[in-house]
Design goal:
mainly alpha; 2 strands; 170 residues; globular; two-stranded parallel ribbon; 49% helix
Length: 170
């Protein structure tokens, strides 16, 4: 639908290991990763449009907990990419972080865009607060929620080269 409205658009889908992605979201919102669930009032009190991210029922995403909803959202967005993969470039966040400049230049080429200036001085500028990647997944989520993420995202993780059995984050 969106691609139909903008047929000449060039679109990039940036994906990240769901364990890192969910940890980053929850840290940004100062929400615990190891809670069994969060009360509706706490979700509603998150700023801006974050309540719509934390509760994906409006998208038809199943899940009884915030963690299951977020894992379902990650998988849902991957499904959206799959349905348009011929028109949407996939970029793994981890590859971008390894070599931002080369990744951006390569992406520009794949999108048919000309590289017009050197961006080396700008690629390390943060656009949002960084989460604490030093907190391991099991420590942050607890085993139960970590298992929920892996169960909800396993197929997509394997497809994109994320090892569901990997023990620690970033």
């Amino acid at each position: 639908p969106l691609l139909d409205r903008f047929p000449r658009s060039r679109v990039v889908f940036i994906v990240r290991d769901p364990r890192d992605n969910l940890r980053s979201i929850l840290q940004r919102l100062d929400l615990p990763g190891d809670a069994e669930d969060l009360p509706a009032e706490r979700i509603a009190a998150t700023p801006g449009s974050w309540p719509l991210v934390l509760d994906g029922r409006w998208l038809g995403i199943a899940g009884d907990t915030v963690i299951e909803q977020l894992a379902g959202r990650w998988t849902h967005l991957l499904d959206v990419w799959r349905s348009s993969r011929d028109r949407v470039e996939l970029l793994r966040y981890e590859e971008f972080m390894r070599d931002r400049r080369a990744c951006i230049e390569s992406l520009a080429g794949r999108l048919g865009l000309e590289v017009r200036r050197d961006i080396a001085a700008e690629v390390d500028r943060p656009f949002q607060p960084r989460g604490d990647a030093s907190v391991g997944w099991r420590t942050f989520f607890g085993q139960r929620n970590l298992d929920r993420i892996i169960a909800g995202c396993r197929g997509g993780m394997e497809e994109l080269g994320y090892d569901p059995e990997k023990e620690s984050g970033s």
